[in-house]
Amino acid sequence: MIADVRGAAKVRRTQAERSDETRKKLCQAALDAMNEVGYGRFSTEDVAMRANVSRGALTHQFPSRNALIIAAFQYLISSWEEDWHLVIEKDRRKLTPDEVTEFLWQKLFQAGNYIASLEIMLASRNDDELGKGIREIMTRWAASRDKAIATLLGVSLDRPETDEFIQLSLCVLRGIALHSSFSSNSNQELQRRLLDKWKSMLIATRT
User: Fold this and answer.
1) How many CA atoms lie within 13 A of 163 on its CB side?
2) Which CATH superfamily, name and number, covers 2-206?
C-alpha cells in the first residue's frame, strides 16, 4: 500500500503540462514586468529571470518579443473572463449601476495587471504586428465584457442607453485607474473618493 502511494506521488507530468506551466509563468512574469517597468524598458531577458526560466526555454515557447506580449495579454484577458463568469454564475442577483461600478473597479481596474494591459494597448498603436494581435483579442474581449456587464445589470445590451452607460463607466474608471498609476500611496484616498463620487452620481440618477 505504501509503495502504491509513493508510486502515485512520483507520477510525472506530461510534456504538455510542463509546457503549459512554463507558458503561464512567462505570461505572468511579462505582465509583472509591464506593470513595474513599462513597455519602453520591457525585455525578454528580464521576463526569463522573473519567471526563473532559461532564455532558451522562453524562446522555445515564444520565438519573438511580440509573441510573448500577445500571449501575456491573452492570458490576462482569459483570467478576467474566467473570474467574471464565476461571479455571474454564482450570484445571479441583478446589480444596480453603482454596484456594477464597484464590481468593475474591484475585478478589473484596481487589479495589479490593469496598468500592464494599458501599456500593451498603447504600444500596439505603433507596432503593426503587435497591433494586429492585440486588436483581435480586444475585439473578442470587448464583446464578452459588455455582455457580462449587461447581464449583471439585468438589461439588454441592444438598448442604446445600456451601451452608453457601459462605455461611459469604463471611460471614467479607466481614467481613475490611470490617474492612480501616477500617484503615490498617499493618494489612494483620493482615488477612493473619486470612485465614490461617481457611484453617488449614479445613485442620484435612480432617485
Assistant:
1) 6
2) Tetracycline Repressor, domain 2 (1.10.357.10)
Q: Which residue in the block uniquely carries the three cell numbers 457611484?
A: 199
The pTM assigned to this predicted structure is 0.85
Polymer length in residues for the chain: 207
pLDDT of residue 22: 93
Residues in the chain predicted with pLDDT less than 50, given as ranges, are 186
Euclidean distance between CA atoms 107 and 72, whole angstroms:
18
The 10 Å CB-count burial string (b at 16+, else e) for 26-62 is bbbbbbbbbbeeebeebebebbbebbebeeebbeebb
pLDDT of residue 83: 84
Q: Can you tell me the distance from the alpha carbon of 117 to that of 141, in angstroms, rounded to the nearest whole number?
A: 12
Q: Is residue 114 a contact partner of residue 177, using CB atoms and an 8 Å limit?
A: yes
The whole-number pLDDT of residue 94 equals 87
Q: What is the pLDDT of residue 113?
A: 84
The residue written with cell numbers 451601451 in the block is 163
